[in-house]
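EI: anyone free to look at a 281-residue chain?
SC: sure, send it
EI:
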Amino acid sequence: MTNTGLATPASLPTEVAALRPIRADLMERLRHEALTVPGNWVVEYGDYQNGGWHTLSLLNDTGNPRDVTIRDCPEPVATSLLTRMPAVRELLAELGLRCMWARLARLEAGAFLWEHRDYGELNDVERHRVHVPLVTNSSAYLILGGTKVHMSDGRVWRLTPTSPHGVCNRFGPARIHLVIDCYADDAFTALNASADSVADSVAALPTPAADELEEHVATASGLAQLGYDRAAETTLLELFYRYALPEGQVYDLIALMYAALHRDEDAERWRSKKAIMLGHA
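SC: here you go
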């Protein structure tokens, strides 16, 4: 029997929390800075996305806003970009977190960050990620644990990025978040304690029927046979945003597709990519 494909209401996964609100006047200044100050956005982590995710650093260990490769940084400094953003500085001071890194992240219309885990390459110390949506829209959402979550603006959010997750912005306009990676301390504990029941646009994704997945794999296989490998891979990667799937299944489907086409090197490449993306390498 074919699944209806309809998502149903859900509660926030434990890996996501809607935290304290942000004053309306400060929110307006933050939004203005995000839209008018940044320039020369950097595309990094290319294997993790389809090309529409851009970042700039606000706090790091070099002061260069285009230095965006995340690493442990117990004593970060303000980048030249942060010096031009007084509202962001005000919010960072209010939060009082022990920051490791802070950056702006822009997700363009039609952009995807594929299913992945974060922090796998960093030292094993307790750290957390805080999101502050500055510019967003209802088609921009996080997928985690088979749940679709739209992080609404006007408040601070907490995400546990060591759980498999992905992000997309289906239709635009561009989504811009302030993303703060911080170390565990009393300030974070106090912030995390401010969680409330707000859960804007949260829905459980449907579980696909076997024939649905077979149809998608057949479509992707046809594209690959015609030489459209990227389109074939994207067809399957995007299933993560449509259905509640077991961890890494989209990567397995791509590897199986290539194996069935007797393209063993490509199948092995995607098995390896799964290990990297999900921290199993």
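EI: Helices lie at 24-36, 86-95, 186-192, 210-225, 229-237, 249-260, 264-277.
SC: 👍
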